[in-house]
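$ run holo --ligand "F0G" --emit tokens
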Amino acid sequence: MSEHRTIIEPFKIKTVEPLAMLARSERELHLETAGYNLFSLPSRVVTFDFLTDSGTTAMSAAQWAAMLVADESYAGSRSFTRLETVVRDLTGCPHIIPTHQGRAAERLLCQALVKPGMKIPSNNHFDTTRANIEFVGAEAVDLVIPEGRDPNSRHPFKGNIDLKRLEGFLQQNQGSIPFGMITITNNTGGGQPVSLQNIREVAKLYKQFGITFIIDCCRFAENAYFIKLREPGQRDRSVRAIAEEIFSLADGCYMSAKKDALVNIGGFIALKNEDWIERLRALLILTEGFPTYGGLAARDLEAMAVGLDEVLDERYLEYRLAVTRYMAEGFNKLGIPTVQPPGGHAVYIDAKSFLPHIPPRQFPGQALACELYLAEGIRGCEIGSVMFGTFHKEGGFIPAAMELVRLAFPRRVYTQSHFDYILEGMAELVANKNALKGLELVYDPPFLRHFTAKFKPLAS
Ligand code: F0G
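-- output --
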């Protein structure tokens, strides 16, 4: 047994960029100019950018090296063949369609296969998945287990699908389901994993009803490592073997490579059967590009091919999940409640419990996100009533079910001392939390409020 308790970053740093270090007074001015909306801040005034883990990865020397030898041919690029081989080996799917990111894959699948009135089940659909399904007139149906909706439940696989509900749903809607899905990990539910057992049962149900099973696999490696850690009988298997079994259970998958392929841009669809391929490729050519580059440069295909291999390094995954766990436990020790247990890519602070004196109408999540910026230069993302609250013309207001602040950690970017520094500063924020004020919405845009809304701090 090793003497060491500390899980270290399993890499050395070769390229660095300076960290923006501003005084609170400077941040106050920037936040006011941004209308108390963190999306409007230029990144140069943000110290710790935890807005998303998507496309924010630090790439490895091996990825950068592969980018230099890329073959930028319009058709038949050797870099595509390389990616194709890696994805085939991992997923067991012979048919690979590259896309520029996850939502491009979603759009192709939805426009090629989904008709108005159809329904697509999953544990929880991510926002862009839902939007693409709704855009073609269909319905995105969430069937996560009840524990997946309870921020305090410590169920080890809160991303699981409720099998009873899925079976009932499949019985009732036979004939109007173009394909069935599952998202690993379940981002909308807090980056929570799905168990291998659940994926096996879901696959069995879809098969029984003759429905094609597609996995949204953008965090497949994190999910596979959770299975290794938490699922009985899985500890002695390699993460690669677990991942390969997951893919073997489905008919195909699509991926936003900006997550577990460790790249800044990219994605793909991978399918076992060729039935859909012609339709998907026709749409791909129309708007994304030729089938051997799909809207990407060949160097991006190379970086994905290397990243898909690197991400299965268990030292990397041990460190990756340790970051989230360390931050959640650190927050909890200071009295900052988070969604339990911590997921793979992000910590979700429960602002409603932490700031009970700020009613949902005054956006406790947004108020906390703003204070995290002022106190520490952190940029997180409110997932609460700013994002999902409903205002009626008559003045009524329906708050979101939860008032969360998501801190999503970029892969291989920040170090242990950055995280310790953040936790040190939190003590003061906790001590002064009762003085925090809510916000008033002063500009409410017609769509996707959280991106462009403007706020004003309330005086009391
Ligand atoms: N599916 C899941 C589960 C996601 O988390 C995302 C993106 C997508 C699909 C869409 O992929 O961004 O490449 O088009 N999630 C990011 C996030 C944006 O911040 O959670 P994309």
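-- notes --
The pocket of F0G is lined by residues 52, 54, 101-103, 126, 128-129, 183, 187, 216, 218, 256, 258, 267, 408 (CB under 6 Å).
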